């Protein structure tokens, strides 16, 4: 008696799923920016009806939250076990900034989202746990984490906005009249130089230096 084989099921794969939709949204973000990212354009790019997207994302804000969650998918490593809370906080702030800079308008997408996904909560858990281990109360550890995150996001918002209009630097340089603004003119190189990484390092160091357990 011959072997009976089950016929292979054929058919078109699902046109949409949550993960692929987020991937495509990030691609469109990098290509055209946040202002051009609409649910209609995303659906068109996926050859689907706009209404189909709402099976996965009730609003555009839900989509942005999922995109923000994906951005933080840089994972964890041995730094989470470090006894130096300043190192843990510094490294995670740099990772957050890099993740936002990896996408056009990444900071604008992330700002205001409230993801409860594993990437976002894992990031927060690592930082807060390190601070608690160092002697911060749980409440102060959470506040310190938010302070670092808000500084990082705000800085990156400015960084990405400035990258969109390099002529701003020339206008600022021309406006720094030494007679009217002698202090600003003296600091002209720092004010107009392409030093966003240096600004970030300075601000982050100052912020972390002001944190104290107890």
From TrEMBL:
GO molecular function, one term: DNA-binding transcription factor activity
Signal peptide: none
Superkingdom classification of source: Bacteria
Domain HTH tetR-type: 15-75
Residue ranges flagged as DNA-binding region: 38-57
SUPFAM superfamilies: Homeodomain-like, Tetracyclin repressor-like, C-terminal domain
UniProt-listed GO biological process terms: negative regulation of DNA-templated transcription; response to antibiotic
Keywords: DNA-binding, Repressor, Transcription, Transcription regulation
One Pfam family in the UniProt entry: TetR_N
This protein's record includes keyword Oxidoreductase: no
Keyword set includes NAD: no
Record protein name field: Transcriptional regulator, TetR family
Lineage: Bacteria, Bacillati, Actinomycetota, Actinomycetes, Micromonosporales
């Amino acid at each position: 008696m011959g072997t009976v084989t089950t016929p292979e099921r054929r058919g078109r794969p699902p046109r949409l799923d949550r993960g692929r939709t987020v991937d495509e949204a990030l691609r469109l973000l990098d290509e055209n920016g946040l202002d051009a990212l609409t649910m209609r354009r995303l659906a068109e790019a996926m050859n689907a009806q706009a209404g189909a997207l709402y099976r996965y994302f009730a609003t555009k804000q839900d989509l942005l939250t999922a995109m923000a969650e994906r951005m933080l998918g840089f994972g964890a490593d041995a730094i989470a076990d470090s006894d130096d809370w300043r190192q843990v906080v510094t490294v995670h702030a740099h990772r957050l900034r890099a993740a936002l800079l990896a996408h056009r308008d990444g900071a604008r997408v992330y700002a205001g989202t409230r993801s409860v996904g594993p990437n976002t909560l894992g990031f927060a858990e690592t930082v807060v746990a390190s601070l608690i281990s160092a002697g911060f109360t749980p409440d102060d550890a959470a506040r310190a984490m938010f302070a670092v995150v808000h500084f990082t996001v705000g800085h990156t918002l400015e960084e990405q906005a400035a990258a969109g209009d390099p002529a701003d630097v020339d206008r600022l340089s021309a406006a720094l009249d030494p007679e009217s603004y002698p202090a600003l003119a003296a600091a002209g190189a720092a004010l107009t130089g392409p030093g966003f990484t240096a600004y970030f390092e300075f601000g982050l160091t100052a912020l972390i230096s002001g944190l104290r357990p107890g």
